[in-house]
Each structure stands twice: as structure tokens, then as C-alpha cells.
Amino acid sequence: MGFQMRPRLTTRPAPVLAVYAAFVFAFIYLPIVVLILYSFNHDGVGGFPPRHLTLSWYAQLFADSSIWDSVLNSLVVAAASVALSLTLGLLAALALDRASFRGIALFRRLVLLPLILPGIITGLSLLMFAVFAGVHLSRVTVFLGHGTALISVATTELFAGLQKLDRAQEEASLDLGATPWQTFWRITLPNLRLSLIAAGLLIFTLSMDEIAVTFFLIGRDNTLPLEIWGRLRRGITPEINAISTLIFAVSVGLIVVWYHLRARSLGGQAREFIAQA
Amino acid sequence: MYSRAYKSLVSIPPLLWVGAFLLLPYGLMFAHSLWAVRDGVIVHQWNWENYKTLFSNPLYAEVLFRTMRIAASVTFCSLLLGYPLAYYLAFHASARKELLYQLVIVPLWVSYLVRGYAWKTILGSEGVLNGFLQYLHLTHEPVGFFLYSPFSVVLMLTHIYTPFVFLPIYAALEHIPRPLIEASQDLGAGSLQTFWRVILPLSMPGLLAGATFAFVLSLGDFLAPLLVGGPSGTMIANVVQSLFGAAFDWPLGAAISVGILVITISLLFLSEILEKRWAFK
Amino acid sequence: MSASAANPPVQNTAEVTALLEVRTVNKRFGSTDVLKNVSLNIASGEFLTLLGESGSGKTTLLRLIAGFEQPSSGEIWMGGERLDRLPSYKRPVNTVFQNYALFPHLNARDNVAYGLRVKGTSASEITSRVEQALSMVKMQGFAASRPSQLSGGQQQRIALARALVNRPQLLLLDEPLSALDANLRKQMQSELKALQREIGITFLFVTHDQEEAMALSDRIALLRDGALEQVATPREVYARPATAYTAQFIGQTNLLRGEIRGGIVTCGTLRWPLEEADGPVIFSLRPEAIRLSGDGKRQTSEVKFRGAVRQQLYGGSSELLEVDCGNGQALRVRIPARGPLTGEHDFVFSIADATPVQE
User: Fold this and answer.
1) CB proximity under 8 Å: A 54-83 to B
2) Would you say residue A126 lies in a domain?
3) CB contact at 8 A, C290 and C349
């Protein structure tokens, strides 16, 4: 399925629709704008309008060591999740692209299930598995939960990348005398480079932000979202606005990079991937 | 072209992993739902008690129906917002289409927590919205129902899932060959008729995909109620969560989870069948 | 079945040994038989073309020889060894792909060097052989370019060099010129032919373009629906097609269907004497074999007929006429260009030019 360039059907403005679209955009962005704004507000969260802009909440944030401990935990878990998800996701994508065995349709659905299933189901089932296996909850269990759930994301991205790959290139490599193993390392992987990076970025971001599954698998070491969550139970402080703003900024940066990488690796199909999930 | 060794090598590790970390856990969950709790300990006695409780105790049905109402409202509102947005981008946005598309996509992947928290700070009685209304002298006291009600849950989840709903609809709209629309106009149908007779039917699969996604994920959400729902906004997943927490009844919680799983998978199947039926090549 | 399907006619050089032997190969995809009992020998050093429509099985046969598919039954032998038992990367066969399949992340030089590198050839030998291969296809100046920076014709040459540098015993070419425009195609055809003569490697060329096949090949193997229709030199295939299908596929022809009775052939309004057994018969008569009566010297054993010129297509050096001979019979006639013709005219052709063909 290609994204063909077609001449614009109507460039005539549709004012009502445009206003409505603007309203929807505002709805999507306004809460975040408010959040960012109030992270600079001296009087804390609430009330209107924000007065006395200050950076003191950010200063307080940077001095808060338990937040940064949780950031470190999140980074470790995210990095490990990327490694696990990409490896298994690549294998799964290769299997779906090239192998055919009885039950492969079921396999595909199973792999993609965590994408559509509410996180609580995935989290609880893994919790029961951990208890069953006698494993204590820790960063390891969180990592296993993220890794398992995010295989679906890796598989989707890498499968799309594989579909775009010209099969003739692998045939050419074999034809020229390279073994399948050599072909995989010299031809298949380099051609998937952009897809791999894009998938990795997305998995990293999703892992850093993950709450639902993490909720049930967390041990003593908090991840960042869970640390924030714990503080929310005790009450709102603008420090949370500050960290949320930072999270938002970093996530946006990563996602923009991801989007452009994906657009480059897949051409016009970049916009269709969710529809195929 | 690929040898059997190759195919086995790529298939077996993910199969094993998925079997161990997805199938087995789901199986365990189902097993738990058939067990019981005695004196604060889980006992491996096989029985149907948990399911009987679910069907006989009206409390659970009430929460479940409230949850479904909330999920349906979220889906409806997300479609109401997302479809026109997708339509505008697909057909009227000319030069800035690419940029606008990115602007919709990016928040999609940004922290759920951040966005939920933002609503919490806005809707509270000390929150930004109340402050704003009082500043404009529209109200003199904080309005209570903004926060800690089903309304706030629907609002927050709509905010989360509108971009999710937008994506497949946009993809479907972009896929409609422009000559079809031109043909419709050529045959005398105006914009509204063309939309109703041509564009809407052809975008159905995308609409269905987005709606299913929003409904299913809203159904199983437990964080939004905890953030902004309050007691009146509790959803079925919160019941499960407390059964695995303070209320300690894992078997009952597992039974409800199995119920959620069954509903989800049924909806997915239904959606897939309908999508195939309404898909045109 | 005629002799053409089983064993190809013996070459002029009686001592030539078959490099590749395809022995009663069948290939089935699902419930479809794509290749049916195909047997073919390819002689060392020859330029053999597999010719056929899409769906005839020619590409499948090529892929069987390359090793990307396995025969459902039958064997393929090369140099005294079973070829079909080997995976493609162990076969002394290289392929030039239809869309070139150049590696986009490598430049031209690294593309060409690929086959040598994976076998662990020494760096110095790689350098010299790659240089040699690039100059053979006249692409020395483009060694550092990436495929995306090269035109279609240039990519095609690199693909060729990449295959040839490995000195395969057999080179497979899968419609390599089909993506090129007409002029470039003609130019590449003559370059390919010259190249093959020069290096002497056996070429197995696949195409659906019969003009291309005729121009390039030492022999043509015509495939139809998975079976070999005829295997012969281009001249032979043209002048003595074995079947009606061959006659129509290669060049243009008139198919005359009729009956022999008592030594006289009757095809519609045409009759001539022929000493053959009674029965139905089909003749292939090439349009250029028919001329206007009065042009050229009168020959013995000619058939004369009268017809009205219904259509005239000017072709630069020649004209293609559609001539109505009456009773719904129309013949195509090719004559040297001579300006517009109208009305009825007398035409002649030699009896010897009417080649009998099978159905």
C-alpha cells in the first residue's frame, strides 16, 4: 500500500471545520500548556492567573534525590527493556515475515495482544507468575513486564520495516555466495537500521512512562512514574509540575526524532502503522 | 528460500517467551479465579464460587455497567473530536498537513501520567479552572463536580484517547482514492452527500479500529479513576486493583480480570469481523 | 511429442559438452503446475534464452537453477554433480536480477566486491578483480557512487559486474533489460552480446521479448504454460517453427489452416500442389514471404492470389498490408515501402515458404 501523492481535492477553506479542528487541538494541548505554565508559578498549583514566575520549583526538583534515584531506575529498566524487546521483536517479526507454521496467526495475535489489552491484565497476570515462580518483586520483574509488553511494539515496527525490504537483495546476497548467517548481518540488519533505531526510541519512551503494568510489579525501587504517583497520593506540589514539564519536553524531543526516523525508513507508510496493529 | 533451520531459529525464541510470559500467566490468572481465600491465604481449592459471586452480587454488575457507560462515553466523545479533526487534516489542510499531523501524534506518546495529572490540577476546587471562572467572576465559589466524578474520568480519558482514535481514521481517509470523490461530485452529489455516501462508508474500518481501541482501553483503565474519579468514579479495574491490594482476595480479583479479558477479546473479534465486512478494496 | 521438447537439436560443434542439464523437472505451487517435465541441456559457452509469456514458467526455471526454489521432482546437474541439492550460496552460478537488487547501503565498488569478500578473498585480489570487472562494464569512474546516485542503465552494469566478478560457470539474467527505455535497451543488448563473446561465460537469459531473444541468442528455448515448445537456433525457430504457437510468438505470421486432398492443399481461397498424405494441415507463412506480383522475377512453384488491400501500416522501410482474399480470409503482407496502395492486386508467394506446423 503506497501513499500516493494526489493533487489536492479541495483547498477551499472550510471555516467551520477549521475552527472545530482548532478547538480539538486546543483541547489536546491546553492542559499541558497549563501544567507547564504553573510549574513556574510562585504560588503553586491552582488559582488564576499565575503570578510571580519563578524557577524555585525546578531548583527544589534538582535537589530532590529520591526523584533522581527513580529516574536512574527508570533508565536502567528502559535500557534493558529496549534490548529485550528489540531482540525478541526482531525474531518475531522475522518469523511472521518468513515462516509459516500452524498457529502462526494465533502467535501473531498473542504477540500483539499486550498492545490492546488494558495494562492491569498484563500486570496482574505477570504478578501471579512472579509469585508462582517464587520471585521477589524488584526492578527485574518490572523489566520483564515492560520487555514482554513492548515486544508487541517492536514486532509491529520491525515487521513494517521488513515488508519494505526488497527480498531480491537477500537472494542476491545468497546468490553471490554469502551464507544465510552472513546475509543476515551484512544485508538484512543494515537495511533495518532505521527501523531498529525508531523502534528502540519508541520502546524507551514507553518504558520510561509506563505505569499500569509497573504498578503491580514494583518492588522497593521506584521508577519515575511510580515515584510521582506515590507523591500524588500525599498531595499536589508544583515540584510535580516541574518534573512533569521536563518529562514532557524530553518525550516530545524523542518522539519527534522517532517520527522523522520512521518516515525516512518507511517512506509514505509512516502514517499507517497504527492502523495495522 | 529460507531453510527450516532458519525458520525454526527465528520462531522458537519468541514463541517460547510468549508462551512463558503471556500464555502461562493468563493461564495462572484463570487458575486463580477458580481458587479461594481462607483466613488471608490463597487456597488451591477448585471451585466456581468467585464467578457465582460476580453474577449474584449486584454491586459488581453496577460497577461494570458504570464502567461500560464511561467507556462508551469516552469512545463517543473521542470520535466526535477525532473524526472531524482527521477529516480536516485529510481534505482541507494542504500545506501544513504534515506539521499538523505531527502535532497530533506527538502528545499521543507522551506520558499518560503527565496528562492525567494536568487534568487533576485543572479540575480541582482549588484548581485552575475554578480559579479562572472566579477570576472572570462567572462563579463565586469553587464548583465541585468538575473533579472526582464520572464526568472527570470521561474528560480525562477522552483527552488521552482522541489522538488514538484520530490515527486509524486519518489513515483510512487518506486511503480513499480521490477520483472516487471527484466522481461522486461529478455525478451531482454535494459535499454532505458525498461524505455520507462515499467517505463515511469507506472510512468505517478505520473508525471501527479506533473506537475499539478507545473502548477496550477505557474499560480496563484504573489510573484515571484514582487520579480524578473519586468514589463515584470508580471503575471495574479499580475493584480488581483493590482486591489485589488491601482487600486481599486474589481469586475474586482474578475472576473479574478473566471477565475483563473475555469481554476484551470478544470485542476485538467482533470488531475484526465487522472491519472485514465493511472493508472495500 | 516432437523432438524439440525432449532433447534439443545437436549443435554444429558435435563435441560440445552440456554444462547444465535439467532433467524432467517439475515445479508445483499449491495446486498449479508451473513447470511440467522440462528437460533442457545448456552447452558450455553458449548464450541460451528462455523465452515465453508471463506465466510460462521461465522465471521459475531460472530460480530453480539459481537455488531460490526447489524442484517438486526431477534433477538439475552441473559439471557431473547434482546442483539442486546445493543451497544457492554454494552453486557456481550467479544471477543478474530484474530490478538489479543492488545493496543500497554499499557503494558500487563494495557491491561488486561483495561475493569475493564473503568468501574471504585476499584484499589485493579483490581490488584487482573489482577494477577489472568495473572496466569490463565501463563503470570505472563510478566505483564510489551509491546505487541511488546511478541511473537505471548504470545500475544494470554494476549488477552485471557484481555477478561476473565471481567468475561463475553460469550466469543467469532475469529480464535485466526490461526496465530500460528502448534506445538504451538496444545499446545494452549489443554490449551484452559482445561481452558474452569476449569472456566466454555461459549465459542463461530470460525474456518475454522475442526480438531481443532472436538478436542475442545462440539458441532459444520457448516455454509455453510450463512446457518447452521448441528449442533451436533463432534462425531455425523463425524459418521452421515447430508449432503454430511458435510461429505466432516469434515474429509475425499468417496461419493458414486447410486440408490436403489428393495432393492439393486448400486453405480458404488458396490452393497449391503438395505431395503429402491427406488430412488437415496448418501452414505458417511469414508476411515478408508474400510479394506483389510483378515485383521481382517470376519463380516456379509459386502461388498466386488476388486480394483487396484493406489496411496499410507504414513502417519506414516497409509497409504492412492487410489483404482481403475473399470469403473472410485475410492475410498480412509485408512489402518494401512504395507509397499508398488501393483496390485489388495480385500477390505471390513461394510454396517452400509455407512451413507446415503442428497445432
Assistant:
1) none
2) yes
3) yes
CB atoms within 10 A of CB B116: 23
Domain ranges of chain B: 1-33, 48-278
Which amino acid is residue A35, in one-letter code?
Answer: L
Grid cell listed for A210: 509506563
Q: How far apart, in Å, do the first and last CA atoms of chain B sit? A: 30
Assess whether A150 and A179 both reside in one domain.
yes
Cβ-Cβ contacts under 8 Å, B3 against chain C? 87
Cell (9 digits) for B101: 499531523
Same structural domain for residues A165 and A236? yes
Tell me: do A206 and A74 sit in the same domain.
Answer: yes
| Distant-in-sequence, close-in-space partners of A205: CB < 8 Å, separation ≥ 6 | A251, A254, A255, A258, B109
> Are the C-beta atoms of residues C243 and C230 closer than 8 Å to each other?
yes
Domain that holds residue A46: 13-54
- Contact of B102 with chain C, judged by CB distance below 8 Å, is answered with no
Q: What is the mean pLDDT of chain C?
A: 89
Task: Answer yes or no: is pLDDT of A251 > 90.
Answer: no
Does the beta carbon of C30 lie under 8 angstroms from any beta carbon of chain A? no
**Looking at the structure, do residues A235 and A153 belong to the same domain, yes or no?**
yes
Residues A136, A227 within the same domain: yes
Cis ω on the peptide bond leading into residue A15 (within 30° of 0)? Answer: no
- Kindly report, residue by residue over A182-207, the tens digit of the pLDDT: 999 999 999 999 899 999 999 999 99
Q: Return the pLDDT at A47.
A: 67
Of A54, A78, A103, which residue sits at a domain end? A54
Cα R_g (chain A), whole angstroms: 22
Query: Which ipTM score applies to this complex?
Result: 0.88
Q: Report the CATH number of the B48-278 domain.
A: 1.10.3720.10
Does the pTM surpass 0.90? The reply is no
| A3 is a domain residue | no
Residue A168 lies in a domain: yes
* Mutation for testing the C interface, residue in A166, A167, A170, A175 having most C CBs under 10 Å: A175
Angle between helices A15-38 and B58-92 (to 10 degrees): 120
Total residues belonging to chain C: 359
**Residues B194, B197: Cα–Cα separation, whole Å:** 5
Strands C202-207 and C47-51: parallel
SS3 C330: strand
